[in-house]
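Hi, here's the filled form for the chain we discussed.

Project: internal
Contact: R.S.
Residues: 248
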Amino acid sequence: MVDIDIRKRRVVDASDEPLFVHGPPESFYAAGVSVGCVYEANGQSYVLFMGWQNPPGGHWRGDIGRLRLENGTLLLADDVPLLGASPQDPISLSYPWVVSTREGFIMWYGSTVAWDAGNGEMLHVFNRARSSDGLVWAREGQAVPYSLGEAQAFSRPTVLRRDSGEWDMWFSYRGAPGRSYRIGHAASGDGCEWTLDLEGAVIDVSESGWDSEMTCYPFVFDHDGKRYMLYNGNGYGRSGFGLAVLDG
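And the returned structure, exactly as it came back:
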């Protein structure tokens, strides 16, 4: 965990210990955990995460798990996935994002259609689920279009709604083997039908340095009248993470 003074652009404090670690062998998060999002339902704060599995002789895969956030401590809410393999998501699931609306809750999450879409790259799309209480979810299928060879391996959505009622989504994406992640954007008028806008409202790699080869895993938020993006750099974040501010 890191505390940042966003105005002075400096790190105030950083924890040397993890807040939550991977589970025991045979658990759905035995090979690792990756944070998706935080949301509140019925007065309780939850953290959703991707639980990694790496079965012997098999392909790595993931499920979506849920943690309770209580007094700064993360506690496993369920011993089984919140969303796991199903007819709608038969292979692997990844990073969820939840938004609260007047009608309930919407979740966008990654779902693998194929490990190889025929061009050597996986087809991993964003699906949608809904809930009236933030606890029990109904899956609705694919939510965001893809483009083979251009944007077909999506990861880590972050979604915000504008005051006008329109929606924005930022995410990581790849399109072909050998291409590293970039940050893309999609837009929607109603939160249901999305249009890819890969060049809009995004940050590209730098000419040199820690984010010159890859930008990925965006987290977008508003603070004090400005819109910010936290994102990872080279090596999926091995080189560090950065802060960007929307210009204009």
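Let me know if anything looks off before we file it.
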